[in-house]
Amino acid sequence: MIPEPTIPTERIPTERIVIPVDCSYPSVTWQCELPSCAVSEHEDVNEALEAALAFFMEADRLKSVERRNRLADGTRHENTAEHSWHLGIAAMVMAQFASEPIDVSTAVAMALVHDIVEIDAGDTFAYDESEAAATKRAREEAAADRLFGLLPAQTGQRFRDLWEEYERGDTPEARFVMAVDRLAPMLLNLAEGGTTWREHSITRSQVIARNGSHIEKSLPGAWSAALGQLERAAGAGHVDPA
User: Fold this and answer.
1) What superfamily would CATH give domain 44-235?
2) Which of 3, 19, 143, 210 has its CA 20 to 30 A from that of 97?
């Protein structure tokens, strides 16, 4: 058992991300052309509506999936529904700083969908090296089969395609959403005072190894700001400086 850590009384404030004025960013578009999610001619409209409503209510269970990191104010742990919403907001406000052109509508949809599988698979801690990490992909594939299978066929396929695209990480939107997915809990841990990192004996170098390559590639300015906060957190004892 890891002993309960001593919580620092002084917390490092969340800082504004400062971008050099001579930086230029690629264009951002909100006009995405998504494959149609309309009910196909082979589906009964009433049955499709019933399926959509059933999935909508099933998605409510995501609010009960607890993550390891806490809210910025430290009052409780974040849940996966809150995390997904926060990433949707991040996609909207951070796309202008991305290193590649981003279709914001696709990125927001991907952010909202990317962790729905945790309804069945649960949240696997980012730094977990146990059997849970080894079985994560299989559990999430099974969850995707069941959950996206609840939807009308074309909608379910669109959700599955977004989830698979995120998992592959082979498009600008997938790389961008992965970047904000790594950035969000890092910033929350920094704002809260690093309790989760200390509880699980996570070091500064582990935080960099886990997050750096993903964030820096898509959001170099944000990574520079987050890294500066991490260095100060290590100096203040909020995270092991190793």
Assistant:
1) Hypothetical protein af1432 (1.10.3210.10)
2) 210
